[in-house]
Amino acid sequence: MQQLKIDIVSDVSCPWCIIGYKGLLGALEELSDSLEAEIEWHPFELTPSMPSEGQDVVEHLTEKYGITVEQSEQNREAIKERGSSVGYEFGHRGGGRIYNTFDAHRLLNWSREYGKQTRLKLALFDLYFVDSGNPSSHKQLLDVVEAVGLPVDEARSILASDRYQERVREQERHYRNMGISSVPTFIINDHYLISGGQPVAAFKKALQNIAAENSSG
Fold this sequence. Notes:
CATH superfamily: Glutaredoxin
Mean pLDDT: 94
Number of domains: 1
Order of helices and strands: EHEEHHEHHHHHEEH
Strand content: 5-15%
Radius of gyration: 17 Å
CATH architecture: 3-Layer(aba) Sandwich
Strand order of the largest sheet: 2-1-5-6
Shape: globular
Low-confidence stretches: none
CATH topology: Glutaredoxin
Distance between the termini: 16 Å
């Protein structure tokens, strides 16, 4: 059984990040007789300067990417279809908002100490994409923390302090310095990079190639 180390650079408000993770997961399930993976999540903020009140999603996308409202709607429908293809059902986010995710990343750093980082990450994806929640709201973050079985009082203390702030910023600088400017980015064994919300077949082929190269090396 070959062991893989997989670092995933992503944001909880990035739809392609959950699509990509589901694609990766599908590939790992199909290769489970020969490969095992240890996954760790790392921060990337799509909108680091976003204020606490957030911004209308359509307004934000049309301003950031110079697309029309119609194109934004088409993109959203395409994302929903891609999500369904890998077993993730997005909620209807028309009229929703995009928020700052820095505090969510602080809690994700902390949750790794309890071995529940992936559980928290997936719950935060659901908060935003399924429940149309606000990942910058401390109350909503604490509700998610409780739901995944992490200690709420400790999380509350973290959110009320500056703990993990520098760690998150240091990690973000590290991956920017590596040249990562979009997410998701999957780093395999500290060497191989896979970018974007790839389908299961693409991940499977890439992982098989990596495993074969490691075996021959």
